[in-house]
Predict the structure.
Amino acid sequence: MSTNTSSQYEPSKLERFLAGPWLFILPGVLLYAAFAIYPVVYQFYVAMTDMTTISLSNVNFVGFDNFAIIAADPVFRQSFIFTIAFVLVTVPFQFILGFGLALFLDQELPGRLFFRISIIIPLAMASIIVGLMWRLILHDSDVGVVNAFLGVLGFDPIPWFGEAAFARISVFIVNIWHAVGTTMIFMLGGLQTISKEVLEAAEVDGANIWQQIIYIKLPMLKNIAGLAIILIFSGTFQIFEKVLALTNGGPARATSTIGFEMYTTAFPEAGTGSLGLGAAMGLVMFAFILVITIFYVWMVMFDEENA
Amino acid sequence: MSASSRIQSKMSNNHSQHFNFRKIGGRIINYIIGVVISFFFIYPIIWLFSVSIKPNWEIYRAPLQLIPSDPQAAVYIEIFSTTPIGRYLANSLLYSLSGSAITLFFSIMVAYGLSRYMFRGKRLLMIGLLGVQLMPNLVRLIPLFIMMTALDLINTRYGLILLYGAGGIAYGTWFLKGYFDTIPIDLDEAAQIDGASRFRIIWQILLPSIVPGIVALLILQFIAHWNDFAIASILIRNPDLLPLTVGTFKLIGPDESDFRLLSAAALVNIVPVIIVFSILQRYLVSGLTAGAVK
Amino acid sequence: MSSKGFSRRDFLKMMGVGSASVAIAGLADLSRTLAQGDEVVVRYLTPSWASTTDRRRERQVAFRGVIDSFNSQFADQGIRVEEIVGDGNPVTITQEIEAGNVESIWLNHGEFQSRYNAGQLVDLSQFGSEIGEFFGFAEGVMSNGEGAIAAAWHNTDTPLYYYDTTKIATPPTTWSELIAICRDIRESEGGNQYGYVTPYVGWFQMNFGMYTTLGGTLVDEDGAPTAFTPENLEIWRVVFDHAVTLIQDDLIPASAIGNAQAQMMPDVFAGNVYSFSGNSNFHIRELEPNLPPDEYANWSAVPLPYPDGADGGLNVAGGWGIGAVETGDAARNAAAAAWVIHATNTDAMANTCLAGGWIPTRPDILANDPFYADDPFAQTTLEALEDGWVVPTADIFVPMWLAFDVAIQRAASGDATIDEALTEAETEIMREFEALQ
């Protein structure tokens, strides 16, 4: 229905829609919503049912019973505490070591590329394979290469997976070995944006290396360090495959994590898996990740506005 | 001031012999530190290879010996001829490539829409896509199992590829939007005046300019899918369809002690990604930090 | 002309690509559709390690032989068996049964009765299965006590005591003899050399037969736990004390606490440990391939040592069987039952068990088949299985197993006293039991 001038063309609603951004945005967003967001929402429903792997259809609504059960379960409580302790120990370690490696690689050094690649190679490896590999390396008896080496130095073999304390340490070590490269990449990227002039000026003013790091480099890398910490935080929080392959949660469930407990509750090797209980555990993990996410979004958006 | 100070420091380097000695000494120490660090990260993988070519009994009787007395490739022939590891390898390749391709396709579309249009709710959508990125697969594992069973996509190639493809869209969108944003919109407008369609603009003008971003995203997604264990282990139960990670774990699992088989299978898992990773690591490092380093 | 230059063709392209993923999903359905003619096809779901696709050639041949002989024998009746390879996981089995995809399944003996009670299995007794030919312990698991046979038990295993004859001249028969041997070796050799090792992951499975031989019970007739009555607690203390002493007195490697059966073997291969408790196929599966070639001949096996004061050990038997799925269709049920009976008859069982390194559930095979009759390890196993004893199939059993494993690991490591560990296990098991109700 054109008005006065024939050249002016009034697009229909459909045409206006097609001309807009939604045609590009909707397919991807809907696909993502269906297979990545909806499941998280659906988890809330599953957590309130007695669904098992044997009967997916015939389920009863049980309200908050599953949460009461896992809260009272000493094994889950232990995994919960271990996960928190694990995060609190490994995140600072990983950050400090990763930052140290970045500082080391941020200097003129022949062979620097080789050193950098060797540090990030573990990042390319699957967690489950890293776990299997270290199970060999740390093998309890003097057959494991670490224990054999200690033996040469005159020490007794360490029961890496036989004693709770050592088993926990082994999970720490393996996780740091696997993931320290993430921090390194981020911090090195940040360090390389700091102009040489600033540092040289500081050097002229008599600042030593430590003063340069603490008073110049760290403050300038505040944002990127925050991002790196958030990322390793969420990465360590969901540790599961390394525990499965390395210690299988043992000995006596000492190294069981929330992720491991959730997986083995829902999909056990033998017997019936309780999806309802597993979903409740998944929501506990969700709550933590949500807090981390809020920090993350805040940091990135804040960063955007400053840029 | 900055230029003069640089000259100054250079001069002081050149003129003081004493300082040069210290510098050379420092270099050597740095070098040693570098080698020790690399050793710590790489030796486990070298040792794995050594175990895989040792005679069985030597693994247990001489664990520190790196060079086997009688090296043999038998275990590699054995795992490729008597275990389905070759099939697992092909499966992993298929899943990782198709999953990354689907992610790439949809991410380009969404990133283009977000980069080139202003519309109501855009900021909200962007925050939403950012927020869900950190959500680990573990958190949706159980619902996905139930959903995929209901859709009859459990135990199928398509189901796994679909999940891999869909799961990376939020990350991929953010990743690529950063690259799209660096291209001036004038280019689009000029092409539009010449009558080019939007698809043509994307294909002929925008994509060629963001090839590094596309490569980086593809590799990151490929490695993520290649290394996935959790989703594949609950979704795929048919042994013919298993990817490498799950297949390897089933093969040697927690109840096995065959060190030789374990190390050979682990190497089959990691060698392909390590090669890809080492060759293309420049793309990756710049891609990973692109959003974070301004 | 539209301002953004979006043509109709673009739109079609878009829809085409967008719906591709949906189409791909749809294809999944197609691939599952099975063309079925007049003949009855028994689709037999079996894990890859018990199928023609296993990595070991001898298993491929044995299972192929059983399938081929069935197909040729039943061809004139229009019955054919078709192997479907799965992973043996109970979840998979349930899914495939519920989807109507299978007529016969390979399953763990622990699932015989629960699946029969859930209406998933056909009563084999209607089709001429002869239960009397199986080991005594197998009967109790195959039969529901009212004449119905839930499934046929195909192969079994039981732990044995393996020892290096050059180091241990006379194998122990009781726990105190075992401990004496361990002490001798620690005193005379020390260092990393140990007389014995046994796993503490899977400990319950290997040891509750010994608890039972002392008079202990686990569950009553209704499936309720009875493991914590005062009398039973007294027996647990004896059993726990033995396992804790081995670790606390440094008589076996401390790493045993975190290790499952196979994971303790490297110590044996390294020549550090002179005897161990392991599954009845460990000489084939573990010792032969991993010991230096001249040392394998030194090894021998006897039934497990048992607690002092008991008349003998009760050796826990586990294993796998084959069942016919209740399909609701008489012809398919009968065909499936015929297949199950065929696949577990004397000939088939002797061949497949030999190929798998398993122990047949028919004692006449162990006694008469030339291979088993001449094999000292097989004869030891036969001897052990005469005192064979099977896990109760109550629902609480799996949680109980896990809880006792945790308890023994905590007690042995010194993290808890025996009484504390037992109290924790009781709390955990009763909590699980209530959750099951």
